[in-house]
Specification:
Layout lengths: L16 H16 L12 H16 L5 H21 L3 H6 L36 H10 L4 H5 L2 H14 L3 H40 L6 H14 L18 H16 L1 H4 L6 H16 L3 H10 L2 H10 L6 E5 L6 H10 L2 E5 L7 E7 L7 H4 L3 E3 L5 H7 L6 E4 L6 H10 L4 E5 L3 H14 L4 E4 L6 H4 L5 E5 L20 H20 L10 E6 L8 H10 L2 E4 L7 E2 L3 E2 L2 E2 L8 E3 L1 H4 L4 E8 L9 H12 L9 H17 L2 H18 L1
Parallel strand pairs: 5-6, 5-8, 6-7, 8-9
Antiparallel strand pairs: 1-3, 1-4, 2-3, 9-15, 10-15, 11-14, 12-13, 14-15
């Protein structure tokens, strides 16, 4: 074709530009050819069908096929000019005229024809320097080429997508650069605004750090919002609901600010404000934010320091991890863990303190319906429920009483520690709950248990002489709020005192049911799922005064010590050996555990009788001391003389009457 430009080294400037230049060269060639050679013996579409093949052949055989390629291009150009003059409109024929191509040819670049009609080697680089008008002409003219006609529709679409992905036009790149510059300018302006607003924002932070108590009007307004927003549909009150509910985010920030002030009250407090005002506001805000009753929050504030109280309240909003206990009567923990892992369960050992516990993080199968569960290889049980049995430490061939056994988790744990030896009496006052106990004992393979339905307070009369007793007493449930959120609002002082009274009766019955002369036992473990002092330390201190027992170590290496003093009360110093467990420190349900050792079967009720008798004379002082001894002797002498004069029947009757009157005088 006489072209010396290497297309592989040519710099790409846009999609399809190479094809447009080649089509423009055909128009330029038609200007130099004689008019006789421009005629076509066949239709105009025929040369265009042969054009791609001619290009491929000419690139391979440049020397031998130059003449044939030139003739085909001449015929194609002549056909295009003829079609432009005849078939198109007048406006199109004007811009299709070959005369306008002279303006695009730069000086010094020309095409010469040899005597044989071949194209001399000239400079074809002129086509790359054409202005925009000629490019548009060539592009519009060559829009439908023979290559595109030969391609299928799906191939045309693929080529179009490829051209869109590979190259962008200069206009598009310029627009993108302009957009990037605008985005950078906008970001700089924003940064400048932030820098300008920096001092003001810092001032606002400084102001917020200085916590101030809200006024009484603001508190009343928030109380109205809170009360009206919590109204039910069927309430008889005629208060309309507010347009906006109370803002919990504002309340949470106020709780944090109030805590900071209370931790350094002497420096950060507001002048003229007492500590009680800050505490009252904190209790009110926590009741609104965490949905607790005022009574329960008051009790919790007495038990925990303020920072620890917030951690406790936050921990109650999160459920405790799911834990299971391996039943060593049927399998080992390693085998059970491998079987559950194969079923898609993600688990880990519970801790160093437990040899049978496993904690479940997530599972693709329901934990309570696996074949291993149905076969009795494990029991769904909370981590805190394992601790009382570990403190009880049952031995083989012992007689053990589980006074409040439902639903049977602790009973089955005792049986597996005893290796199904000895005897376990599983008692519960609820017949309905005993059904779950019987089902779990059968599923887990426990064979040394006897189930009874009796009142625990009457149990020493039913059966006694046990080596060990486990008492998981019914309580208010303040340690398992994450499981039962209703405890936040449905407990009051009456419920706490009622539970404490029942627990005192049960613990005395449990102590009386133990045989102090047991060779291996004589132990009682008392536990509750409550954190109230009235249900724990008070009950234990009461048992120490009423029975011949003493507190011993529980054998648990972790847990917080029990209280030896609470507000104005003072308990026995040995209460340090009891253990408390909290959800925010141990990641398990709130629990209290105490272990007693009984050293005498006698009931120390006679200790207070001498004190009462000794107090009786002092209650009526002067009955004997006020009467002088000589008068007593005279009276006695005169009475003796009269008694001698009286007959025998009358004397006996008089002495019997005196014997009846003497206790009244005393």
């Amino acid at each position: 074709m006489g072209r010396k430009l290497d297309p592989t080294k040519k710099e790409k400037r846009g999609p399809g530009r190479k094809a447009r230049k080649q089509r423009g060269a055909e128009v330029e060639l038609a200007r130099f050819l004689p008019p006789g050679k421009c005629g076509l013996d066949r239709p105009a579409a025929a040369p265009r069908r042969a054009r791609p093949s001619d290009r491929r052949v000419s690139s391979r055989r440049a020397g031998d096929r130059q003449e044939e390629a030139l003739q085909s291009r001449q015929k194609e150009a002549a056909g295009q000019t003829a079609r432009g003059r005849s078939g198109f409109s007048d406006g199109n024929s004007k811009w299709l005229a070959p005369a306008k191509a002279k303006k695009t040819q730069p000086k010094g670049n020309h095409v010469e024809l040899s005597s044989d009609g071949e194209v001399e080697e000239g400079s074809w680089e002129m086509e790359e320097e054409e202005d925009g008008s000629s490019e548009e002409m060539v592009d519009d003219y060559g829009a439908s080429s023979s290559e595109e006609e030969e391609l299928l529709p799906i191939e045309k679409a693929a080529l179009k997508q490829k051209s869109d992905r590979e190259g962008l036009s200069e206009d598009d790149s310029e627009e993108e650069e302009e957009e990037e510059e605008e985005a950078e300018e906008a970001s700089k302006q924003k940064m400048g605004q932030k820098e300008e607003e920096g001092p003001d924002l810092q001032l606002n932070l400084d102001i917020d750090e200085q916590f101030k108590l809200p006024t009484s009007e603001e508190i009343e307004k928030e109380d109205i919002l809170f009360i009206s927003s919590s109204l039910a549909v069927g309430d008889s009150l005629t208060v309309f609901p507010p347009a906006e509910p109370p803002d919990l985010h504002v309340i949470h920030q106020r709780i944090q600010g109030n805590l900071e002030v209370l931790q350094d009250f002497g420096v950060k407090r507001e002048e003229g404000r007492s500590r009680q005002e800050y505490l009252a506001l904190l209790r009110r805000d926590m009741a609104a934010y965490y949905s607790y009753s005022d009574f329960l929050l008051t009790k919790l504030m007495d038990i925990f320091p303020l920072p620890e109280l917030i951690s406790f309240l936050e921990a109650n909003e999160v459920p405790r991890p799911v834990t299971i206990r391996t039943n060593t009567l049927k399998t080992r923990r390693r085998d059970l863990a491998q079987a559950l892992i194969n079923r898609g369960v993600n688990l880990d050992p519970l801790g160093k303190w437990s040899k049978t516990g496993l904690v479940i993080y997530d599972s693709t199968v329901p934990i309570g319906a696996t074949p291993e569960y149905l076969a009795g290889h494990y029991m769904l049980q909370g981590a805190s429920s394992l601790l009382p049995v570990m403190a009880l430490a049952p031995q083989e061939n012992e007689r053990i009483l589980d006074m409040c056994c439902a639903p049977g988790g602790k009973t089955s744990y005792i049986a597996q520690l005893m290796k199904n030896t000895g005897m376990i009496l599983a008692n519960d006052s609820s017949a309905e709950r005993l059904r779950s106990v019987v089902g779990n004992l059968h599923r887990l393979g426990v064979t040394n248990a006897v189930v009874s339905n009796c009142d625990g307070r009457q149990f020493p009369k039913v059966l006694g002489g046990f080596d060990r007793v486990l008492l998981d007493a019914p309580c208010s449930g303040t340690g398992v709020i994450s499981k039962d959120p209703a405890v936040k609002t449905n407990k009051d002082e009456t419920d706490i005192l009622r539970c404490a009274h029942l627990q005192k009766e049960l613990i005395l019955s449990a102590i009386d049911s133990v045989n102090a002369a047991s060779e291996t036992g004589g132990y009682i473990v008392y536990c509750t799922c409550s954190i109230m002092v009235e249900e724990n330390e008070w009950v234990v201190d009461y048992a120490l005064k009423k029975r011949n027992v003493r507190l011993v170590a529980t054998g648990l290496d972790f847990g917080k010590e029990g209280f030896t003093r609470f507000k104005d009360r003072r308990f026995h110093p040995s209460l340090k050996s009891t253990r408390r467990f909290y959800p925010h420190t141990h990641n398990m349900d709130g629990f209290f555990i105490a272990k007693f050792k009984k050293f005498s079967n006698a009931i120390p009720q006679a200790r207070k009788e001498p004190a009462v008798e000794a107090a009786a004379p002092s209650a009526v002082p002067g009955t004997i001391i006020t009467e002088p001894p000589p008068k007593k002797k005279k009276l006695e002498g005169s009475k003796a003389d009269k008694e001698q004069k009286l007959p025998q029947p009358a004397l006996k009757k008089k002495r019997s009457l005196q014997a009846q009157r003497r206790p009244l005088k005393a």
